[in-house]
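User: Hey, quick favor. My workstation is busy. Could you predict this chain's structure for me?
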Amino acid sequence: MNRMKKIICVFSALLIGVTATAVSTRAAAKKVKAAAKRVAVAAIAPLGTNTVRGTFRAWEEKSVAVSVEVTVENLKPGKHGAHIHSGGSCGDDGKAAGPHWDPNSTGKHGNPSDPATVHHAADMPNLNVDAKGNGGMKFTTTNFKLADLIGKTIVIHDNFDNYTDSPANGGSGPRIGCGVIGEKGAP
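Assistant: No problem, here it is.
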């Protein structure tokens, strides 16, 4: 009888251990799935004879804001404008990227820290490029949602953006790099 009790106790302990492990494994899988972020991404390639290359990444921050990070290399030192364009192609030397994305039809160019109701949502901070030609920028905004970016383009300009309409496009100059924005990650 004692032996039977021991067998039942060992079997019960094993059963409890297996059940706890299964529950723990399911909980861990749920945490991993919840932690998986949807990310908008683009590989920035040169336009024309330029040599700029880089990456664009954007992700949601607690479903209320979007963080954007752009890294670049092979640019002249200084500041460079970067904008989201409405087109879904970098063809025709970047002209297929279309105009700056303006979902609120403001028709205005402005400072990215202002609400998108007073300027187009495409405005982003200037890229800061060091003496070796490497640089980038990172910012967080509520001016758009992550899903809004998919299928649009990120365009890098030759000059800095003064965040006004004079000269046109904030004086940021010609398009020198471009990437089509796609999605990576789990919904």
